[in-house]
Amino acid sequence: MDPDLKTIGARPPGAEITHLKPPVDPASLTYKQLLDGPFWQRVPAYQRIDEATFLDWSWQAKNSITNPAKLLAAIQDLVPQTFFDDVAAGFHQAPMAIRVSPYILSLINWDDPYADPLRRQFIPVASKLRPDHPELELDSLHEQADAPVPGLTHRYPDKALFLVLDTCPVYCRFCTRSYAVGLDTDNVEKVSLKATEARWEQAFAYMAQRPELEDIVVSGGDSYQLKARQITLIGERLLAMDNIKRIRFATKGPAVMPMKLITDTEWLDALTAIVEKGRRLHKEVVLHTHFNHPNEMTAITKRGLDGLFERGILTRNQSVLIRGVNDTVGEMQTLIKRLGHCQVQPYYVYLHDMVKGVEDLRTTVQTACDLERHVRGITAGFHTPTFVCDAPGGGGKRNVHSFEHYDRETGIAVYTAPPVKPGYFLYFDPIDTLAPEVQARWADPAEQRRMVEAAVAAAHEAQRSNARASSIR
Fold it and tell me: Which helix (H) or strand (E) holds 286?
């Protein structure tokens, strides 16, 4: 025998290989197939827009849809007047101002806009709205309560959230910061977090005085909206602090206006310079973005993200679990695989925050737990997101399945957060997902109190029982 073939399992060249797995279903690889070509020309207003114009990020910003009249002018007769009337009524009730990029508008399926996952995220329709949960608060995560200076939330021991501005390239219906982001609406008068250097100086001074702070999230609003010089200013100031070791620039921009990564070279060069300087200082500077559905990712997206990858910019993704958008196994698996295909690490999937005016978008805790089981194992562990509940009341991010108690009948989940804050933090499933008799109980304030008290008592007893069985002290 040829000595080169003595290795265990070796086969001569050309020998038939025995496959242990059946041939792959081609449908399972569709995550690699990204929409390409002038897809935007399906929208009447964009029929004559060439590629160079569509890829101009400033054109995208200037032509964003900001009211029902602009929406009507853009899509014209693709939908009936009844849909526009529904949208106009939805805007009147929404806590967020509208702002939708031409890119996103062109990806919506206007043959069935009510079911479209992108329309659901950005364009409200009154006919689908549901009453807010009675336990909802406008600032449900208590970010302002944990802010020592305006726009800086210091909740976790070594991390702070720096809200540098209050605008975004688009406005998501489900924004957890509807208390501050965007223009005032008929329902919400916003807290002002303007991009002023005087306000930033207060935050810089606080961060420099807290040696335990090592990790800063630069968000808002959206860091996509920062000018190149502001990216440089903020990055340089943070890198100059000995205590700061990690910086994350947070933006939804790549999901809703990816062409900025291609045509705004000044902004991208500023970010790259901060990333490279951080690397020389042995400090991590990364980009965190926010894709929720595979349809948000096109060939334009991959081109922009490939540019980030070539520059050595690590990009992670934080999704929100949204009803009718990504709450099925197929949609979530495809999203995760498509992110990996574009060199974006899936980091978190958030259980939808209890946000005013979007009860129709929330899912149950059980849905998140079920999805996590079906996601783990489809790809590498470092490309597998953690499903979390950002606990209402300021408990911070908890693994969605780490509740002390979850009553699936009443829809109440109780979490604790020992490293963050004492006490119990309650998340509530949407009332319309509960049995009719339980929905009736939620309509009675006295019954509401009894259900909450019972859930907390059960969580307390579970903690005592676990403590007796555990060796952790």
Answer: strand 284-289
